[in-house]
Design brief:
6 helices, 198 residues, alpha+beta, 29% helix, 33% strand, single chain
Length: 198
């Protein structure tokens, strides 16, 4: 099984969560205690997730649909874990969005937050709120573009650094990277199967 499945199946036992992350018996504390030498050289996270598919809507319409109800497409769950974007109104520049989920700012699990930094006709961006997110000075941009008549590419681009050692370890070794990929691929799947048909 992949590491993220292992994390999901071992996060809680006996109806009680004793370790927030447990991967093959290794907790975050174990990882901190046993890591030899300096952390991995790259502290930068630069990733892109995209899909190209037939779409009845144009890029502006898809972007507007997503911006009007981002949580509908971005909320995610798998087993006992879930991520919820607490969006009460259509996205607007400067708006703060709280995120409840399995990986907030470090540990213990709690809410993290992003600020809407731009809203354009075919894209919008979030910037992480300093001190309230495992990424520091992070941006995530959501964009739609036409590649041919009736076909659209939707892309989620992430560019960030880590806010500390624990978030870095969680992301690189305890399932955070897989969690992020699952959330954004789920959003793209929703765009393809719902957003393109409204």
């Amino acid at each position: 099984p992949d590491p993220f499945s292992l994390m999901l199946s071992t996060a809680c036992s006996g109806g009680e969560c004793t370790n927030y992350f447990d991967f093959n018996g290794a907790t975050v504390g174990d990882a901190l205690a046993t890591q030899q030498g300096p952390p991995p050289p790259s502290k930068q996270v630069t990733r892109s997730f995209s899909g190209t598919f037939p779409c009845a809507a144009n890029p502006q319409q898809v972007t507007q649909t997503l911006a009007s109800n981002f949580a509908r497409f971005a909320d995610w769950s798998a087993g006992p874990l879930q991520v919820t974007f607490l969006q009460a109104q259509p996205l607007s520049r400067g708006q703060i969005i709280l995120i409840d989920g399995p990986i907030g700012y470090g540990l213990p699990l709690n809410s993290s937050a992003v600020r809407v930094s731009s809203v354009l006709p075919t894209s919008f961006s979030f910037t992480t709120v300093s001190g309230a997110h495992p990424f520091d000075q992070g941006t995530v941009t959501f964009s739609a573009s036409s590649v041919s008549p009736g076909n659209l590419t939707f892309t989620v681009s992430v560019n960030a650094s880590f806010s500390g050692r624990i978030p870095e370890l969680v992301f690189n070794y305890l399932g955070g990277k897989q969690l992020e990929a699952s959330i954004w691929n789920h959003l793209i799947y929703g765009i393809q199967n719902v957003g393109c048909h409204q």
